[in-house]
């Protein structure tokens, strides 16, 4: 039988729920943080910030309260409604509108509800303690009455909800609640720079707004598989966590960071008529979602427990909970296909915003479950309805069911046409092999999470999810994957921490791989390493980042543009090397075999970009005015330059003690059309430049530390130091510090020093002395871990728990520098912060 998938998913994936540049409206009680979120949106998304209260005062010369006292309630209502109409009409594109926190007039709220049909209207919520801290004269009971009054009204007028889980003013957003979400240790706040106090909030809100206005179209894009660094993982994993687990007294947010690719937030559904109202559950759900969003770095799937009865009240609440998931701006939403419901229509209307996964569990499949016509009709239904994905499961009654599940996946992959991604595996103990070899979002758990399962689930303990380590072990034990050898090579890598952190990650996943150091005087010995059938890849250190280029069969576009590499992968599946690598190339990782050539990439810039973005305060979000400074002009400086261009920085200043080298580096990027450098600039480094195109960054040169900063360039808020702080190849060590004339940014900035030999440099000491002015110091160890995370993902396809490598590196350095009190104190503080955060 020939089957053809429909193209329904293709057309839907290209649609957005709202027009490009649609304005958003923020509503909510006073003290929920609407103004902070509006500032984030205006800075990050280039939106114009419009405050209704400010506009009213500008229009009338009076505050709303003063106007009411002077002109009466009726005239105030008319004036407010007229102004609201004008604002919503005049600022309908590319604006963030802040609604008054005390506005409850029915006519205005109806106007807002109508506006929400074509624009996101977001209800901003926050815990009682944080709102009370804002409304300090009010007691808790008065604040609670206010929230109970306005939140249901605002919910009826909005189409989205965002929970402000932040640490502003030292108030944890979960304190003072009847059912608090898991929190981090107090030490996290004591060591976190004050300028980064809204960083978590910025990241969560940007993700939220992106999901609403610019939804990704495919699972691969959402998992970051088509961004740098590429993963193209053959096997991906889904961590499941329930509301009851999140509410467990012993729950630790560190358990969310376990190497999984996505997280499924599981909402329990009582299977009887005695159901709690949605409003009573909304608070618990949105706080659990906000906690998961903060501490899990990846897409979140909103999953409501399947209805197991035909009770109409149960079915109705199931649909209500799905619709509430839509309000949270989740990445994915599962829909139970076991039962059909008229209420699904509203959910399907939103499939151009949220990505839908059809979820089907066959409780009584029979002997031909996987090959039955019913099963294939289900797949076709998913194609026709425009689902992004389909998850099909059944209990395994025999070992043959595991082979049948694999056959089902193979046959579905052969069907021509656009189709949803397919997840298929068996449950019960006999189904564990099919879960180990399922390729897309295999459900996993951790031993710690398993300990928080409700007692009611203990009877099903034999059917508990496997761990990611168990699945990886099965792949190696079955010879699907092989033990591979990795190396860091360079002129002198005897000091390198790469083996320490890479092998810690190998051990975490239960992989049989090893990474070792190889110092060498020339590139010749590299050939012997890469010809080994078990060579998995090379990390290229100082000395060979550019000279290795000529020995490669293919390089990534990033490496070609930078003109240097730091990562080499043996080619075991040929392709046309002028094109990007194929899926077969990526699938050959972790597998031994003959080597046909070498593929090179540069991930130095990825680590630098991550360090900058994670430490750049919301006050310094990158805009068209942002200026950065690079110190140095070697191979690492090239990667730093490229990282800045990838972040969208349009103004870059270069300083190097040999100015001609800085000019040469700028010319390398100028020749590719990425920066503008006029002829006069090349001849006279201090002369001004004028870009021909906004697509080009403008570059300037500083000849010495005595050079004044440029009058028409904003002071730098990003500084990247790419010069050695210890002697290298006979060259003297650098004791570079920033001239005060280059540190005049009123909002501070981030300074990344790529050195970790020594860990504490004169530059970092200087920056830490200015932390009260918003300056954040980032040392080379943080950059090393960020780059190694990206490299490990490329080598093995696995995502390392965020802080695993950095913690291992810090512990290693603590032992090495045990006699250096200054370094040990800094390392201990960083470890405290990281271990508290994770």
Automatic annotation (TrEMBL):
GO biological process terms held by the UniProt record: chorismate biosynthetic process; shikimate metabolic process
Domain Quinate/shikimate 5-dehydrogenase/glutamyl-tRNA reductase: 625-677
GO molecular function, one term: 3-dehydroquinate dehydratase activity
Shikimate dehydrogenase substrate binding N-terminal domain mapped to chain residues: 488-568
SUPFAM superfamilies: Aminoacid dehydrogenase-like, N-terminal domain (SSF53223), NAD(P)-binding Rossmann-fold domains (SSF51735), P-loop containing nucleoside triphosphate hydrolases (SSF52540)
Family label: In the N-terminal section; belongs to the shikimate kinase family. In the 2nd section; belongs to the type-I 3-dehydroquinase family.
Name of the featured protein: Quinate repressor protein
């Amino acid at each position: 039988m020939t089957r053809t998938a429909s193209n329904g998913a293709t057309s839907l994936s290209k649609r957005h729920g709202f027009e490009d540049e649609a304005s958003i409206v923020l509503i909510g009680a006073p003290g929920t943080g609407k103004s902070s979120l509006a500032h984030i949106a205006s800075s990050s998304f280039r939106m114009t910030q419009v405050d209704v209260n400010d506009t009213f005062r500008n229009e009338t010369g009076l505050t709303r309260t003063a106007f009411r006292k002077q002109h009466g309630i009726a005239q105030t209502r008319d004036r407010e409604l007229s102004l609201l109409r004008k604002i919503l009409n005049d600022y309908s594109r590319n604006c963030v509108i802040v609604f008054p926190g005390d506005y409850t007039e029915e006519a205005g709220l109806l106007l807002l509800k109508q506006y929400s049909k074509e624009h996101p209207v977001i209800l901003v919520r926050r815990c009682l303690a944080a709102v009370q801290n804002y409304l300090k004269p009010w007691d808790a009971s008065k604040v609670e009455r206010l929230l109970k009054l306005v939140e249901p009204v605002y919910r009826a007028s909005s189409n989205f909800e965002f929970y402000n889980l932040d640490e502003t003013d030292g108030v944890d957003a979960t304190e003072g609640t009847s059912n608090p979400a898991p929190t981090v240790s107090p030490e996290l706040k004591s060591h976190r720079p004050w300028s980064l106090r809204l960083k978590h909030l910025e990241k969560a809100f940007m993700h939220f707004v992106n999901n609403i206005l610019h939804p990704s179209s495919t699972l691969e894009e959402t998992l970051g598989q088509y961004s740098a660094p590429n993963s193209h993982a053959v096997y991906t994993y889904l961590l499941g966590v329930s509301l009851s687990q999140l509410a467990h007294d012993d729950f630790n947010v560190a358990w969310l960071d376990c190497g999984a690719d996505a997280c499924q937030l599981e909402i329990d559904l009582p299977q009887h008529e005695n159901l709690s109202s949605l409003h009573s559950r909304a608070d618990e759900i949105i706080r659990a979602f906000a906690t998961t969003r903060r501490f899990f770095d990846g897409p979140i799937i909103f999953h409501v427990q399947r209805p197991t009865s035909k009770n109409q009240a149960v079915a109705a609440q199931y649909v209500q909970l799905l619709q509430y998931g839509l309000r949270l701006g989740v990445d994915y939403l599962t829909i139970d296909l076991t039962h059909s419901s008229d209420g699904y229509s509203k959910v399907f209307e939103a499939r151009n915003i949220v990505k839908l996964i059809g979820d089907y569990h066959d409780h009584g499949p029979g002997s031909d479950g996987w090959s039955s016509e019913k099963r294939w009709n289900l797949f076709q239904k998913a194609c026709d309805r425009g689902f992004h994905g389909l998850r099909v499961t059944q209990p395994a009654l025999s070992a043959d069911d595991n082979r049948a599940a694999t056959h089902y996946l193979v046959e579905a992959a052969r069907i021509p046409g656009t189709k949803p991604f397919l997840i298929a595996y068996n449950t019960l103990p006999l189904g564990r092999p099919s879960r180990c070899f399922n390729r897309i979002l295999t459900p996993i758990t951790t031993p710690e999470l398993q300990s928080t399962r409700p007692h009611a689930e203990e009877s099903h303990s034999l059917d508990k999810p496997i761990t990611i380590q168990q699945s990886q072990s099965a792949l190696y034990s079955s010879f699907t994957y092989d033990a591979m050898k990795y190396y860091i090579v360079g002129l002198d890598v005897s000091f390198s921490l790469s083996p320490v952190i890479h092998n810690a990650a190998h051990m975490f996943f239960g992989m049989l791989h090893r990474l070792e150091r190889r110092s060498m005087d020339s590139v010749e010995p590299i050939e012997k390493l890469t010809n080994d059938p078990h060579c998995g890849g090379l990390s290229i250190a100082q000395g060979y980042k550019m000279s290795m280029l000529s020995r490669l069969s293919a390089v990534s576009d990033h490496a070609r543009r930078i003109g240097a590499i730091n990562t080499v992968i043996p080619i075991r599946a040929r392709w046309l090397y002028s094109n990007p690598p194929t899926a077969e190339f990526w699938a050959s990782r972790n597998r031994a075999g003959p080597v046909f050539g070498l593929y090179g990439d540069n991930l130095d810039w990825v680590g630098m970009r991550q360090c900058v973005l994670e430490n750049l305060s919301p006050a310094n979000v990158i805009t068209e005015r942002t200026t950065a400074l690079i110190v140095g002009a070697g191979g690492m400086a090239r990667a730093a330059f490229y990282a800045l261009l990838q972040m969208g920085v349009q103004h870059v200043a270069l300083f190097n003690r040999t100015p001609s080298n800085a000019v040469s580096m700028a010319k390398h990027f100028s020749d590719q059309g990425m920066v503008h450098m006029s002829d006069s600039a090349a001849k006279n480094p201090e002369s001004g430049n004028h870009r021909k195109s906004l697509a080009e960054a403008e570059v300037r040169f500083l000849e010495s530390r005595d050079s004044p900063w440029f009058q028409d360039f904003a002071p730098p808020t990003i500084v990247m130091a790419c010069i050695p702080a210890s002697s290298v190849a006979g060259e003297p060590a650098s004791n570079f510090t920033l001239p005060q004339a280059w540190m005049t940014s009123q909002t501070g900035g981030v300074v990344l020093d790529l050195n970790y030999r020594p860990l504490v440099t004169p530059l970092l000491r200087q920056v830490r002395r200015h932390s009260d002015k918003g300056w954040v110091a980032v040392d080379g160890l943080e950059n090393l871990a960020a780059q190694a995370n990206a490299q490990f993902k490329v080598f093995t396809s696995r995502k390392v728990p965020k802080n695993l490598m950095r913690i291992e590196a810090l512990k290693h350095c603590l032992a090495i520098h045990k006699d250096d009190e200054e370094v040990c104190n800094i390392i201990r503080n960083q470890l405290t912060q990281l271990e508290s955060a994770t």
